[in-house]
Design a protein that fits this description.
It is an enzyme of class 3 (hydrolase). Its EC number is 3.1.3.2, 3.1.3.48. Keywords: Cytoplasm, Hydrolase, Protein phosphatase. Acts on tyrosine phosphorylated proteins, low-MW aryl phosphates and natural and synthetic acyl phosphates. By secondary structure, the protein is of the alpha/beta class. The N terminus is likely disordered. A four-stranded parallel sheet has the order 2-1-3-4, with helices on both faces. The radius of gyration is 14 Å and the shape is globular. Helix 2 crosses helix 5. The protein is 40% helix and 14% strand. It has one domain: 3-Layer(aba) Sandwich (Rossmann fold).
Length: 159
Amino acid sequence: FVFNSLKIHLNLVSIGNICRSPIAEAVFRKLVTDEKLESKWRTDSAAVSDWNVGRFPDSRALSCLRNHGIETAHKARQITKEDFQTFDHILCMDESNLRDLNRKSNQVKDCKAKIELLGTYDPQKQLIIEDPYYGNEKDFETVYEQCLRCCKAFLEKYH
C-alpha cells in the first residue's frame, strides 16, 4: 500500500462520470470530512469515455446528493494515463468499467493503481453498482445507498 506524501489517492470511475462516480466521490469526500481525515485523502472521479467531459453531474444525481445534505461542484473528466501512475486506488462501478480500466492500465508504464470494483467493499455483497441514467429517482437513491455502504467499508479498511 503506497502513501503519496501521506495522502491516499482515490479515483472513482464510471462510464460517463455524471451519475455513479460523482455520487461516490461526493459521498466519500463527505465521509472523510466527517471523520476529519481530509488531509489524508485526495479524492476524484473520472469517466472511461469522453462523452460528458466538462459537464456537471446529472440533475437527478445532484438532487439525490442534496437530499442527503451533500453538495458537489464536480465536472466530468476522462481518466488519463497519469491517473494510473498517481492514484493508489481506482474503484469502478461495473465489469465493463473494470475491463476498460484494465485494458487502459496495460498501456501505462509504472501503473501503481489498484483497480477494483467499488462493490467489492459492499457488506451486502452487491458487487455491481448499476447505471441509473435510464432509470428514475429511486435508482439514484439505490446508487447513493450502495456507494455509502461501499465507501464506508473502504474507508474503514484503509484508515
